[in-house]
Design brief:
- Helices cover 43% and strands 21% of the residues.
- The protein has helices at 2-5, 10-16, 24-38, 50-61, 69-72, 122-133, 139-154, 168-171, 190-193, 195-205, and strands spanning 87-98, 104-114, 136-137, 158-167, 182-189.
- The chain has a 5-stranded mixed β-sheet, with helices on both faces.
- Helix 3 crosses helix 4.
- The protein is elongated, with a radius of gyration of 20 Å.
C-alpha cells in the first residue's frame, strides 16, 4: 500500500488499490472505537467532539497525500542572470508522523542545490519538505524523497538534503529516551561526487562559512 501512497493523492491511491476512501463519519467512528479500546468513554462530555476534532486534525497532519510535488516544482525561472552558485535553505522546521507508531517526528530540514540554468522560488523548497513531511514517514525515506523530487524535477547539477529530528516514538515509548537526535542525509550529482562541495554545504548548514 505504501508504494501507492507516497506518489499521488490519497483518493487516487485508494482507487488504484480498488478500495473505497473512508467517509468522515467512518473515520470518526474508528476514533470512537480507539477511545473505547484505550479504556475511555466516548460519550462523556469532554470526549463528545473528540472524534470530529481528531479526524479534522488528521486531515491537516496528512495533507501531503493531497499535494503534488509535480505541481509545486512545475514552474521554474530560467532568467537567472548567470547565477550558478549554491542555493541553500537551512533550519526549515517540520513535523511528521512515524509510520510505525503514528506519533510525531519533529525536526529541521536543510536543503541545497546547484542550479543548472534553472531556479525555483525559495518557498517551493519549503513546500516540497512539507509535502513529504505531512505523510506517514520514516526519516530515511523522507530524506530520500525530498532529494529525489528536487533532482528529478529541477535537474540541477547537485542536490543536498540534511535532516535532524527527534522521534517521539523513541522518547514517549519503548526506551523512553528524550532529546536524542537522528541525522540523515542524501546527495545527488556534484554533492555526491565532489567532497569539497559536500563539505561546503555542511559548513553552510552549520553556519560556519
Amino acid at each position: 500500500m505504501k508504494a501507492f501512497l507516497t506518489n499521488r493523492d490519497d483518493k487516487e491511491s485508494f482507487r488504484m488499490l480498488g478500495a473505497k476512501h473512508p467517509t468522515k463519519e467512518e473515520a470518526e467512528e474508528a476514533i470512537r472505537i480507539l477511545l473505547l479500546w484505550a479504556g475511555e468513554n466516548p460519550a462523556r462530555e469532554g470526549l463528545l467532539n473528540t472524534p470530529a476534532r481528531v479526524a479534522k486534525a488528521y486531515g491537516e497532519f496528512f495533507s501531503g497525500y493531497n499535494q503534488s510535488v509535480e505541481e509545486i516544482l512545475g514552474i521554474v525561472f530560467e532568467d537567472v542572470a548567470g547565477y550558478s552558485e549554491p542555493v541553500i535553505i537551512r533550519d526549515m522546521p517540520f513535523f511528521s508522523h512515524c509510520e510505525h507508531h503514528m506519533v510525531p517526528i519533529v525536526g529541521k530540514a536543510h536543503v541545497g542545490y546547484l542550479p543548472d540554468g534553472k531556479l525555483i522560488g525559495l518557498s517551493k523548497i519549503f513546500r516540497v519538505v512539507e509535502v513529504f513531511a505531512r505523510r506517514l514517514q520514516t526519516q530515511e525515506a523522507m530524506t530520500a524523497q525530498i532529494a529525489d523530487a528536487l533532482n528529478t524535477h529541477l535537474k540541477p547539477r547537485g542536490v543536498a538534503v540534511f535532516i535532524e529530528a527527534e522521534h517521539l516514538c523513541m522518547s514517549m515509548r519503548g526506551v523512553g529516551k528524550q532529546g536524542a537526535t537522528t541525522i540523515t542525509s542524501a546527495f545527488h550529482g556534484t554533492y555526491k561526487k565532489d567532497e569539497k562541495a559536500q563539505i561546503h554545504f555542511i559548513m553552510e548548514m552549520q553556519g560556519r562559512c
